[in-house]
Structure formats: structure tokens, C-alpha cells
């Protein structure tokens, strides 16, 4: 392929491209850098940065031209995430193919998403978005949509119907994540769901809850919990039934809803959500910072893990093990790291790995000849135990527990921060979710014209890609809800050739 981007130059080789893209640095600085790609979707790609080797990608990536890209809180807090910088970030992408057809791109470049042959137990087990070998568009390694071109995983490129506008389409990625949260908690008739921090993501969660209620006819109540009075009208406009003032951290506020979804992107948000919830907190924030006594709250969300107290009642504990998220034909795998021995009945119902060292238990699970190389459930004493299970190896982004697995805490641990207090004294559950299903989100938008017309109101500012530093600064201001980066229409997308 060959082509030209803003500030870039053409290359005569049909399988290369050169362009300039703005990179995000660990000090929040944004500066231009020259990139060069060489390769093909069948052979793989070599990426150079500033004339030096930068990244090798295997097969299964197709070049697309960036058209629009939204700015989200993850972009603004990218420096806190445990992935290399500098990087061209941006993952809420509309991209164009060779004939300018519009597509959205699911961001997790797993084996499955790349459409390549594999024996990955995660991709084969319905956990492709959690594949340990995946790269993530605009977040982990893969240059993102703030640059003029992206290399998109082949099987994750989804064409957009003509009925969906650019302004609705650029919100597909965060709306899919919002829809995933709404479907995960699945409120019943008569229950209350409160969305804490209804702004960029929170307003989309409210819209998703309202759209599902309309589609399914389940009569639950949607509340917006706000700190800024200016956001109250926004929450009502996107489908909330009522707006309340969010309680202050450390206050003695009474719960206002069975479910509270924390979308604040603020480390203090989790403590507020724990106070406001009567049954379950659903965490969406990926700010990369410690919260509520945990170091790895962002990693909890990335791995979509659930926390709850280990029941003292044996029958309730047996039900927790029975319902652990293993495959239907497998026995649950339980990692027992609590200071007390596992109950005698547990080995009859699960394969038990007991020990004090989570890294050693992970290695033992990885050495098993079959099955997902993780535990389905872990039992620990306290917050330190949770952190150790979530990231047993400081230099690797993997957990002892499988993605969408569960961690339980025993009563009587040495540390009793706000999270353990909520889990044990108030019997709350903490659930999490991350990326959503783009196809589901698109189907809902196509079927619900009112929803498709409502979402674009979230976009308050549009900025050319050549002014990215200004756009990121603008996204931090109170008057801004959503900034969308717009790429110039003059650069041509290079064509791809088979080997």
C-alpha cells in the first residue's frame, strides 16, 4: 500500500505507508512523530517510529483511514495505565476503507478478532476480548484513531448502515460498553438503578438503560447521581427518571438504589457508589489509580472480575462455588489463599489449589494440560489478597482468576477498608464490565430511531485532528461533554495487495 496523511508523504512501495501522528506521552505531553508501516494483512506488519524499529504485528490487520474518533476519560488518564508510552491513542473510531465505506472497529486485537488460526483457550472459550496476547487499538501498542490511519483486526471491522449518522457511529464503542453494563446488572421490575457521574460514559449508560427498558418492557427506575447541577438536565434528557445529588465521600448517606453504576472516572467514585448502593455496585471507571483500599481497581474492570464476601453459611458458600463461571463441562477451579484451611466439602465440588503464593498457584494452573489456565474463583482474606490475585506478577497484565471470574473475601481479615466493610457488613457485591458487543449496540440503534437521534447530543465539541493537544485540553473542561476528533478528507487510503 502507499499513501499520504496529514503532514505525511507518499511512498512508492505498494505495501508501505508513511505518516505523522500525534503521540501521547507519560507526562501528558502530545507531540508529532513520523511512522512508517510495511507489510500486508497476510504477512504481518513492521512499524517504524522516527526511523527506528517500533513494533512487529503478525497477520490479520487491515489498514483503514481514520475518519472520526471520540475522546474519552481513558484517553485523558492514559498515563496511569500499565502499557508503554508514547503511543498514538484514540479508540472510539469510525474508519474508512478504500472506497470510503464507513466502519467501526472493535478494539481488542485477539487471535479471533484477527481471523487467524489459533489454539488460544481464551478465544476458544468465549473470552476473545480477554485474550492475553491481544493488543488494544489506541490503548496497548496498536496506533489509535487520533492518527490518520489505523491497522484494524480483520474480523473486528464492522460496516456501518447508512441509517446511522457519523455522530451516532463515533459513539458506538462507548455505547457498547454502556450497554454491556446495563445488560450485566439486568435490573428487575420495581428496582432502582443509579448512575453515578453521568457525563461522557454515564449519560450513555443512562441511555442504554432507558433503551433496554423500552425494548423489554421491564419497569425499573433510573436515577442520575450528580455533583454538578448543570448535569441534571443532561441526565433527564438521556432517560433518567430522577436526578439526586451524589453523597459526599465519608458521609453517612442512606442507599438510594439497589444498583449503583460508577462511571465517574475518579478514584473517589467507588467509595461514593458503595455508600449509595443497597445491593450491588457496578464499576466502569478505568482511571488507573488506587481506590477504596485497592491498588488494582482498574485491572478489576479490565478483567471484568466480581467481588463478594465468602458466605459463612456452608449452603450459601456451596451455591457460590456451583455458580462460579467455569465452562459447563468443567469442574470449578478454586484458588484458596485465605489464612484458614478450605472447608472439607470444597474438594468434592471443585478442583482446589491451596497456598499463600498467588504466583505459584498461577504457575500450577498454567502447567495443567487442558482447560483455561486460571482459577474460576479465588478466596482471600483482605484487600492485599485481592490485589495479589488480580496481578500476581507485577510485570504481567494477567490475573490468577479467569476473566469474568470471582474473588471472595473471608470475614475477619486484618484490613477493613470501605470496600470490605461494604462486602461483609452490608453484604454488597461489586461487579465490573469493560468493552461491549458492537453488533448488539448497532442493532439497538438501528431499531430505536429515538435513541439514534438522542446520542449525538453528547458531542459538544468537534476539533480537527491537527489540533489534538487543544482537543485533549478542551475535554478536561467542565463545559465540555464529548469532543470528537475529525480527520481531513483529502488524504487517500492506500490499497492493500495480497502476497
Helix and strand composition category: alpha/beta
Separation of the first and last Cα atoms: 12 Å
Globally, the shape reads: globular
SS element count, helices = 17
Largest sheet: 7 strands, mixed
- Point out poorly predicted stretches: 1-14, 492-499
What is the CATH-assigned architecture of the largest domain? 3-Layer(aba) Sandwich
Number of strands: 24
Overall description:
This protein has 499 residues and is an alpha/beta fold. The protein has two domains: 184 residues, Medium-chain alcohol dehydrogenases, catalytic domain (Quinone Oxidoreductase, Chain A, domain 1); 255 residues, Rossmann fold (3-Layer(aba) Sandwich), CATH 3.40.50.720. The strands form five sheets. Strands 5, 6, 7, 10, 11, 23 and 24 form a seven-stranded mixed sheet that branches. A six-stranded parallel sheet has the order 14-13-12-15-16-22, sandwiched between helices. α13 links the parallel β20 and β21. α5 packs across α6 and α5 crosses α15. The N terminus and C terminus are likely disordered.
Chain-wise SSE layout:
Layout: E1 16-24, E2 30-40, E3 44-49, E4 52-57, E5 61-70, H1 73-76, E6 92-96, E7 102-105, E8 108-109, H2 111-114, H3 121-124, E9 135-136, E10 149-153, E11 157-159, H4 166-169, H5 172-185, E12 192-196, H6 200-216, E13 221-226, H7 230-237, E14 242-245, E15 257-262, H8 269-276, E16 277-283, H9 297-303, E17 306-309, H10 314-322, E18 333-336, H11 346-349, E19 351-354, H12 358-366, E20 375-380, H13 383-390, E21 401-409, H14 418-424, E22 429-432, H15 438-447, H16 449-454, E23 459-464, H17 468-475, E24 482-486
Parallel strand pairs: 12-13, 12-15, 13-14, 15-16, 16-22, 17-21, 18-19, 18-20, 20-21, 23-24
Antiparallel strand pairs: 1-2, 2-3, 3-4, 5-6, 5-10, 5-24, 6-7, 7-11, 8-9
Helix pairs in contact: 5-6, 5-15
Amino acid at each position: 500500500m502507499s499513501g499520504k496523511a496529514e503532514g505525511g508523504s507518499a511512498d512508492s512501495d505498494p505495501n508501505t505507508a508513511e505518516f505523522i501522528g500525534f503521540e501521547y506521552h507519560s507526562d501528558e505531553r502530545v507531540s508529532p512523530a513520523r511512522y512508517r508501516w510495511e507489510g500486508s494483512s497476510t504477512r504481518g506488519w513492521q512499524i517504524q517510529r522516527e526511523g527506528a524499529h517500533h513494533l512487529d504485528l503478525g497477520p490479520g490487520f487491515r489498514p483503514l483511514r481514520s475518519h472520526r474518533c471520540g475522546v474519552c476519560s481513558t484517553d485523558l488518564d492514559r498515563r496511569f495505565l500499565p502499557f508503554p508510552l508514547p503511543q498514538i491513542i484514540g479508540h472510539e473510531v469510525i474508519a474508512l476503507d478504500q472506497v470510503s465505506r464507513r466502519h467501526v472497529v472493535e478494539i481488542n486485537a485477539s487471535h479471533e478478532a484477527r481471523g487467524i488460526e489459533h489454539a488460544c483457550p481464551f478465544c476458544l472459550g468465549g473470552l476473545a476480548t480477554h485474550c492475553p496476547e491481544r493488543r488494544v487499538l489506541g490503548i496497548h501498542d496498536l496506533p489509535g484513531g487520533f492518527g490518520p490511519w489505523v491497522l484494524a483486526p480483520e474480523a473486528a471491522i464492522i460496516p456501518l448502515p447508512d441509517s446511522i449518522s457519523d455522530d451516532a457511529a463515533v459513539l458506538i464503542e462507548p455505547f457498547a460498553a454502556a450497554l454491556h453494563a446495563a445488560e450485566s446488572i439486568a435490573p428487575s421490575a420495581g428496582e432502582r438503578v443509579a448512575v453515578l457521574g453521568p457525563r461522557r460514559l454515564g449519560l450513555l449508560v443512562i441511555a442504554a438503560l432507558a433503551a433496554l427498558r423500552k425494548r423489554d418492557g421491564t419497569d425499573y427506575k433510573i436515577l442520575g447521581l450528580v455533583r454538578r447541577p448543570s448535569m441534571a438536565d443532561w441526565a433527564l434528557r438521556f432517560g433518567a427518571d430522577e436526578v439526586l445529588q451524589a453523597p459526599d465521600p465519608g458521609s453517612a448517606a442512606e442507599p438510594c438504589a439497589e444498583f449503583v453504576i460508577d462511571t465517574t472516572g475518579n478514584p473517589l467514585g467507588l467509595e461514593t457508589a458503595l455508600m449509595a448502593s443497597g445491593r450491588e455496585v457496578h464499576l466502569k471507571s478505568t482511571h488507573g489509580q488506587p481506590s477504596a483500599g485497592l491498588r488494582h481497581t482498574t485491572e478489576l474492570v479490565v478483567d471484568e472480575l466480581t467481588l463478594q464476601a465468602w458466605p459463612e453459611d456452608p449452603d450459601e458458600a456451596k451455591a457460590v462455588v456451583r455458580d462460579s463461571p467455569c465452562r459447563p463441562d468443567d469442574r470449578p477451579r478454586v484458588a484458596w489463599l485465605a489464612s484458614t484451611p478450605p472447608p472439607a466439602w470444597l474438594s468434592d465440588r471443585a478442583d482446589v489449589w491451596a497456598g499463600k503464593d498467588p504466583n505459584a498457584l498461577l504457575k500450577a494452573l498454567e502447567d495443567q494440560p487442558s482447560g483455561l489456565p486460571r482459577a474460576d474463583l479465588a478466596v482471600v482474606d483482605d484487600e492485599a489478597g485481592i490485589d495479589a490475585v488480580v496481578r500476581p506478577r507485577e510485570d504481567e497484565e494477567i490475573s490468577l482468576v479467569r476473566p469474568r471470574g470471582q474473588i471472595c473475601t473471608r470475614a475477619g481479615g486484618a484490613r477493613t477498608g470501605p470496600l470490605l466493610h461494604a462486602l461483609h457488613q452490608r453484604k454488597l457485591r461489586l461487579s465490573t464490565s469493560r468493552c461491549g458487543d458492537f453488533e448488539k449496540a448497532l442493532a439497538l440503534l438501528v431499531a430505536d430511531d429515538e435513541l439514534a437521534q438522542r446520542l449525538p447530543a453528547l458531542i459538544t465539541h468537534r476539533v480537527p485532528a491537527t489540533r489534538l493537544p487543544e482537543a485533549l485540553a478542551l475535554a478536561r473542561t467542565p463545559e465540555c461533554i464529548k469532543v470528537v476528533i475529525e480527520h481531513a478528507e483529502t488524504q487517500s487510503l492506500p490499497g492493500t495487495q495480497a502476497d
